[in-house]
Amino acid sequence: MSPDEVTPRWFIDLDWYQPNHRSFSILAERCLCADCRERLQVEGGEIPAEELLVAIKDCCSREPGFITGELPILESIFRLFLANGNEPLELEELSKQLSEWRAGNPYRTSVEVLSRLLRSDQHYGLRQVAG
Prior knowledge:
three-stranded antiparallel β-sheet
């Protein structure tokens, strides 16, 4: 890789959901702990994305079992980005962090596997950072 090439980084693209007839709030609300679910309830409306991201990063992601080896890989990736406050990550760092969280088969979190899964995602809004 030349110095001019930028290593791709990935994140949850919150702007992807509406044009694709999906809801970030519905996906993220499933990841809330019981305390945050009760605290953030909004009557008849969705919880704003920023509130969900803060609650999950600061509280819910610290609960045991937030990410486990039993979860599908894409769900684990989605939850990892939620736990990181949706900070973009390079594939190598994503692989490393997933391996630590999942404590399982390193093949399932290899850069090659993650790259294929991320490129084909049509459910979680996982996209490369533009530019």
